[in-house]
Structure formats: structure tokens, C-alpha cells
Amino acid sequence: MQTTAFESELSALIVQALNLEISPGEIDPEAPLFGEGLGLDSIDLLEIALAVSKQYGFKLRSDDADNERIFASLRALTAHIEKHRTK
Amino acid sequence: MVLYALVSRFALRSLPDGAALKWAADLPPVLIDLVLCWVFGRTLRRGAEPLITSFARHAHGGTLPPDRSAYTRRVTLAWTLLFAALAAAAAWLTAFGPLRAWTLFVYAGSPALVAALFLGEFAWRRVRFRHHPPQRLGDMLQYLRLPAAQTLPLLRLHSMDDAVARRRGQPISAATLLADAAALAAALPPGRQVLNLCRDRYHFLVGFAAALIARRLCLLPPGSGDAAIRDICRDFGELCCVADHDEVPAGVARLRPLGHPSAPGAREMPAFPAGQPAAMVFTSGSTGHPAPHVKTWGSLVRGALALGRHLGLGPSLAPQIVGTVPPQHMFGLEATIMLPLQWRGAVDAGRPLLPSDVKAALEAAPAPRWLMTTPLQLRACVDDALDLRSALRGVISSTMPLDAKLAQAAEALWDCPVEEIYGSSETGMMALRRTARGATWTLSEGLTFAPEDGAMRVQGGHLDAPFTLTDRVEREGARGFRLLGRIGDMIKVAGKRTSIEDLNTRLRAVPGVVDGVFYMPDGAGRPAAFAVAPSASRASIIEALRRDLDPVFLPRPLYLVDALPRAANGKITRDGLEALLHRMSAR
């Protein structure tokens, strides 16, 4: 499993923001973040959005039409943030 | 009964006299007494629940102590005998008595005897059960005043063209809703209850209305796509799932909310008996195994009417609702479905989660706008300094305690009142407060306290049954109270309740865990946990807990420690855990 530097950075951010019981390296970049995969829920989404907004100056939307694609996995979320980040 | 006797007597007495006519005119009181005798008497047969017992059980919230069961059985027998005697006396007077005596008996004697038994029994009950909290006559009359057979409309509106929902600002009319709901109702497989998993709020509304129309129970699962739904499917057998997405449990019949062939009667306003079971919500224990609670249509409507009156809604003030809570949650059902339905309002079909979604949804809605949300999402919006171009009429927060400072910040940011609802899945709304202005809660309209053994019970109003609070409260005046803390260390995570003790038991049962304790820091959204487990890893403990617990209760984080801060007597104090948490998180 190849993980890019930015994916590692984001998984570290997520693990820290959510007090997750795993190490950042354990997040499979291809696995679903919510529901069955990593098992995150909507409260976690709120935390992630807040952390992303502070770190990268960009506000996530959950009712984006591409929502399912954006939050499908760490890899998809990373790509989305990379495209829209302002810092 | 008396009115009918009067009318039939005057109508027929003016006709030429005759024996047959006399009997036709005089029989109704006899028949009515006989029918009442049968109605009471049939419930006394073996295996049936006596009628008065059933009334008392509902008034007591579902269960009666054995001595009351025996007592109410005797009361039912007394009523049966009274009606039998009245019927016999009226029949004897009809056949043999003078008209004067008959009239006196039917119009005065008979009602007086009924009233005497009612009041006499009430007085005797207060003496017989003087050690129990006293009942008031008004409570009994209120129970009789709202018969379960009264029908209440699905929605109230000016015209069928009124919007009941909006999707990205585009109105969806009441006529469309009724047509969609009637079509779905006709498509529901016979005999199956409806599991409503719709995420879009309009789709949910269609599923909810269709279940009501088809006289089915609408099951509202906590959360989605998890073990809780599988449990519900297992417990309830044949279900029909209405969903606008594909994450439905395997093996359950699934229907889309829309797109069914149109059904007749779609332009009539449906109305349902107040006593019709309308929705089933679930409270989940820590295992996530859901416990069901049935809501009657009457209780949902009365709750929505009470909330609307509290907000000052009326013909010229129809609420436009944006909600961040799922409609399957009791607060979501009350505030984002029932409230707009009963107050000519409309709801945004979406479920905005993040601050930028909330902003977009609010800006797409017309005035007067209300935001129905949770403290977590409110905090995210306030931290984001969410700038709304158009004014909010109000914010209502529920599901977990709202911090007063956060409420003040939100009021300052949007220049509108931020109110908080204290409620539960079992009851819905119980009390309200404007958090920025004080900590005192006021019971919602019609509710009263009934103190009982230290715990506090609320009753009346929209509640189907009295409810014992799971929090310790201190009364303030007749209708006010302050929350002192939880009873039995209950905690609430993501709208789900459990007790710390239950979590501790499960943690200590994990193989390799010698000692362990959960800890919910003040103001935290999730519990943390400490475990003494020399032979186990954090990952293995979490894995074991994951099999046993609803995921929302998994510790975030779990700390492995050498020992728990137990005092000499073995007790663990909150202060000790707070200090330990501080030490561990600083590492």
C-alpha cells in the first residue's frame, strides 16, 4: 500500500483530531472512512472539517454533489483538499 | 344516553299512542345500560384485562402494582353490576311502572347513581391508597376528555399549493406530498411495518405519511447501516424498508420512497386517530441493542402543537425549518417533521452537517427561519463565525447539554434566541430554556411533576405515559427545575445513552484486562478509558469492545496504565481519573 506524504499528513491530523485508537500508518488510504471501514460517524466528520478548515484554510461541504466520492476514502479526501486548499 | 332518551321520547310521544311505540321510545336507556354492562363485563372474563385496570395502567405509564390490579378488577365488576342493575330497573319501570317514575329514574336517578359510583370510588381510592401520590379529579377527567378515537390531520395548511418542504430552495407542495404518500402507501406490501431509512427529509416525510395512511407503524432506527438496524430487523421479523439509498440490511424488502403508480384519494387531507401507533423510536443501551418506544399520533401532534405555541407560531408565522439532526431521532422528528407539518411550515429536505452546508441551506430558505441542531454542530458554526446574510428567527438545540457561553456566542452572532430542549427518546420534549439567560428549565406546556421516591416523574401534556427522569433535578417553583447531574452515571454519546458502570463491566470482561474504567470528562463528546492489562494490547482490547459495544461508546482514547487511582477503600474518584487523564494525555 503506497501512501503519499500528504496522505500521511492528513491521516495524522485525523487520528489526532479524533483521538483514534490507531496509528496514522494504519489507515488504509483506499478504505472507506465512514460507516463500515474506519467506522467514523457524522460527529467525526464535523471534527475533521474543523481541523481541515484550520489547517488548510478550506471549508468542506457534506452536501456537495460529489460527496460520496470526496469522503469515499482517505485518498479521495486528500485529493479533494489538495485541489482546494488555500494554505 | 340521556339526550337520546329525551329526543326519542319527545319525537314518539307526540305520535298516536301504542304499545309498540312506547317500547321503542322507552327501550334505548335499557339498551344503553345493557351495552355498557357488556362493555365492562366482557373484560372480566378469564385472560382479559379488566377495563378499569387498562385505564389505570395507561395512566400509570404501562405497569400497575398487583394490589392496584386486584382493586381495579373489583371496580370494573362494580361498574358491570351497576349497569346491569340500572338496565333491569329501567326495563321493570318500562313494563310496569308509571311514566312519572320511569322519567324520574332515567333522567335523574340513573345519572345520579353513575356519578355516585364515580365520585364514591374516587374518594375511596384516595383513602385506600393514601400512601401513594394522590390523584386529582382533573387528571382523570383529562384522560377521559381526549378519547383515543379523536382524529387529527396529517398536516394543517392554507391550500394544497402550500410548500411542505424545500429542496435547495425549490418548494414541494402539500398536494405533491399527499400524492407521493398515497402512492407509496398503496405500494407497501400487506401486513409489514415500515422501517424508514430515508436520508432526504422530504423522502422521509413521504415514508412517514405513507405508513400513517396505510395504518402501519413507522420504525425509526438509531443511526444507519449498523448493527442496530440488523437487530431491529431480527426483532420485528417481516419489515418493509423505505430507503432512498442502497445501504439497507440484506434480506429486507426495500421500496424507494418515490416513483410508485399514483393512488386514488391523494387530494383528500388524511386524518388519523389520536391513539393510532405512529412511530417507533429506539433507545440504545451500550450494546446497541435497541429498546423500542411507540409514539401515538396524538402524542406527536400534541407535542408539535406545544412546541409551536412556545415559539409563538401562528397563522401569520409559519416556520421554515433547517435541521442538522436526522428525522429518525426523536428531536429531529419533533422539530423538523411534526413542527412544520402542524404549523403550516416547510422543512429543508437536506441534512446539512458542516457549517458551510448549514449556511447554504439557511440562505436558500425563506423567512422566518429556524435552525434545529445539536451543541456539536452549533459549536462548529460559531467557531467558524458563520456569517448569515439573512436573519435567523431562532435556534433550537437538543440531544446533549448546551454550554451557556456557546449559547451566548451564538445569540450574539446571529442576533436571535437560542433555545434548548430537554427531552428523551421516550418522551420527546419535556422542558425548554433559553440557555444564555439562565440554567432553569421550564416544563413544556401541560406537563407537571409527580415526585416519586426521590426520582422525579413528569406526566401530562403530550406524553402518552408518565416518565421518570434519568437525571437528578432540583425543583424551582411549580414548573421549573435545574439539572443537578445524572442518576446512575448515565452518559450520552451521539444521542445514545448508556451507563458508565455498564461500560466498565464490559471493559473488565475483555480477556487480558485486569482492571479498567471509563471516564467521561466534563464537556467531552466521547468517553475515554483506562485499562490495566499487562498481557493485552490496546488494539486487541478495542477489537474485543467493538464486538460488544455500540461504536459510539468505544473509548477515545484508551490508555493502558499500571494501576487505576483507587483509594484505600477501592473506590475511584472523578478527581483521580481527571488527574490521570491529564497525566496520560500530556505524554
What do you see in this structure?
The complex is a heterodimer of chains A (87) and B (587). With 87 residues, chain A is mostly helical. Chain A has one domain: Orthogonal Bundle (Non-ribosomal Peptide Synthetase Peptidyl Carrier Protein, Chain A), CATH 1.10.1200. Helices cover 51% and strands 0% of the residues of chain A. Chain A contains 4 helices and no strands. Chain A has helices at 5-18, 42-56, 67-70, 74-84. Chain B folds into 3 domains: 2-145, no CATH class; 152-489, Rossmann fold, CATH 3.40.50.12780; 494-585, 2-Layer Sandwich (GMP Synthetase, Chain A, domain 3), CATH 3.30.300.30. In chain B, 41% of the residues lie in helices and 21% in strands. Chain B has 17 helices and 27 strands. In chain B, helix 2 runs antiparallel to helix 4 (66-96) and helix 3 (51-59) crosses helix 4 (66-96). Chain B starts with a helix and ends with a helix. In chain B, 42% of the residues are buried.
Class from secondary-structure proportions of chain B: alpha/beta
Strand-residue proportion of chain B: 15-25%
Report helical residue fraction of chain B. 40-55%
Task: Name the poorly predicted regions of chain B.
Answer: 1-16
Interface with most residues: A-B, 21 and 33 residues
Poorly predicted ranges of chain A: none
Write the CATH homologous superfamily of chain A: ACP-like
Q: State the name of the first-level CATH class of the largest domain in chain B.
A: Alpha Beta
Q: Sum up the overall morphology of chain B in one term.
A: globular
CATH topology of the largest domain in chain B: Rossmann fold
> What is the number of helical segments of chain A per DSSP (H or I, 4+ residues)?
4
Helix content of chain A: 40-55%
**What's the alpha carbon Rg of chain B, rounded to whole Å?**
29 Å
Average pLDDT of chain A, rounded to a whole number, is 81
Any idea what the CATH superfamily of the largest domain in chain B is called? ANL, N-terminal domain
Provide the CATH architecture of the largest domain in chain B.
3-Layer(aba) Sandwich
